[in-house]
Specification:
single chain; alpha/beta; 9 strands; protein tyrosine phosphatase activity; 8 helices; hydrolase; three-stranded parallel β-sheet; 244 residues
Length: 244
């Protein structure tokens, strides 16, 4: 009898976390979902692949997407209205992905910030190409005001020229790190894929996010779930999604 000792592991195409904490599903306020129906279709697909809760996080960028707390909460209400009676077994909450700029600092000063969970987790991003000169100062301000800063998709920033050292420095500053799951499959390019592996291998990933803008990304995500690279996240890191 022949035994195949080289048989590949087969993984389920189901999420290993029940909560997604990064997506763009509030319709027509950023570069994400364009309609209520699109948002509902995405949520239905996410429910199918194992998610029970989605914390959607529209961009807040003063020059491009100058969203307010009021407009974001209004968008959440519209999605919840559409979900009623839909038989989709998923809960949706809202925060925001804040771009680190002067307007964000102004919001920080008056605590006009949408956070996630009970521990004031604050999702933020920066330019992909240039690190803000006041980066560390703003991080200190966030923490001193009781927020827990989460840097969205650190693997995608081109200014981290020495990824291992730079990522470890982020942790020293008290920053939580959120990996875009689709980076593992090369969805954002070779550099992001390489940096994603470094983050996973260092064991410093705190959160993972779909960063879904449209339904095709959910299909890509589903395929990533069946890979060894995805399962390695949980072997090497303590993922906090389901504490939210």
């Amino acid at each position: 009898m022949f035994i195949n000792f080289f048989k590949k592991d087969k993984f389920s195409k189901i999420s290993k976390v029940k909560t997604d904490m990064h997506s763009h599903l509030i319709p027509s306020i950023d570069d994400g979902s364009s309609s209520i129906q699109s948002s509902v279709d995405i949520l239905k697909y996410m429910s199918k692949i194992g998610y029970k809760k989605v914390i959607t996080t529209p961009h807040t960028i003063s020059d491009i997407y100058p969203n307010s707390t009021k407009s974001i909460l209004k968008g959440l209400d519209s999605i919840n209205d559409a979900l009623r009676g839909s038989n989709i077994d998923i809960e949706i909450e809202v925060a925001s992905e804040y771009y680190m700029d002067n307007e964000f600092i102004n919001r920080l000063n008056i605590d006009d910030i949408l956070t996630m969970g009970d521990n004031k987790y604050l999702l933020f991003e920066t330019s992909y190409n240039f690190k803000p000169i006041y980066f560390e100062e703003v991080i200190f301000q966030m923490i001193s005001k009781g927020y827990r800063p989460i840097l969205a998709h650190p693997e995608r920033y081109k200014y981290f020229l020495n990824p291992k050292e730079d990522f470890l420095r982020l942790k020293e500053l008290g920053i939580y790190l959120q990996l875009d799951i689709n980076s593992l499959g090369g969805h954002y390019g070779k550099l992001a894929k390489k940096s994603a592996k470094i983050l996973v291998d260092l064991g410093i990933v705190d959160f993972i996010g779909s960063d879904v803008h449209h339904i095709k990304q959910v299909s890509f995500l589903e395929n990533i779930f069946a890979t060894k690279e995805y399962h390695n996240i949980f072997l090497k890191n303590k993922i906090l999604n389901d504490t939210l």
